[in-house]
Fold:
Amino acid sequence: MPLAHVEVVRNLRNVTGGKKVKNIIRHLFYFTLFLNINACKTYTILPHISDIPKEDFDGKLSVELPDYSKINYWVEHPKKKKHYASLPKKYLDTLNKENPKIDAFFIHPTLYLKGNSWNADINDKKLNKEIGNTAIQNQASVFLGIANIYAPHYRQMHIQSYYDLKNGLQAFEVAYSDVKNAFIYYWRNYNKGNKFIIAGHSQGTNHAERLLKEIILENDSMRSLLLLSYLPGMPIKQFHKDLPTCSSPNQLDCFLSWRTLAEGYFPKDWEVSDSISCVNPISWEIDSLVSENENHLGILFQNHKIYYPKSIAAYNHNGVVWIKPIKIPFARFYRMKNYHIADYNLYWINIRNNLRYRLKENGLN
Structure:
């Protein structure tokens, strides 16, 4: 049992009164779910040596190309029979649309953490299911009912690629080529003149940035239909003259980026630069003012429910979002520094409501 759980159990033993015990057990349950969101996977810790590729990159091992004309190569798609994207349980949205006139092209983050190849097997059923149950359910779902979600499977590069650039850069090329091909297929066959959003997280954000820079923003037709770009989880600087950082809560034709850390923490090897874009995903401002707890609308937990509104206050600092200690019972027992994996979960309703606000303010509701 983790130390945090041991301490909570000790506290339970000292409590009298059935109702109070039930309340604490309930909070402990929610707290455990919060740990699961953030602790079951991490994209910032070097994998164990037994979990990484032993040989140098070999392009021949990644020869099978995904065929995006086939629905099974999309983890989420309007025509799929099984959908991973769903609204949180007991979350009522009266504005939800069955057939939105806007699309969201979503590129999932790294979930390929163990394996001997530098790129994931596109037909790995276990990994593909995990992508759906995590990245799509927790992240891409924020666009459900506002936009049609198109999220491709792609031969994502192994997490070790971020540490071994000799092999990683080649693995990145394989992964990006799939993302590019998926978007081009989407554009030619599914877009049908819809305005669209580009969104990703972590590795997905890296691919989204390149897709925007090399393809979308260099094509007048694509650029004219691009509404907004969500690029969280990576240090993103303005990379194209036609795509500025969003600087106000109602702005379109811009990009949004943030990385979430605990207040006071900043990794030693991270760059400190005023040019790194960062928005506060509660206030949607780029200033350094602290957002009020009252404006935080809740956290999406691993059981796909929203808990604890008004639990987070955040502000921008050196290109990241610093959050003050989260006001969740027993959270003091779990001192997390990097909330990378929860960049969407922590602000799920704030992200969704703000998107609706941006669309409404620009006559696109």
Q: What stands out?
A: The chain has one domain: 3-361. Residues 258 and 278 are 5 Å apart (CA to CA).
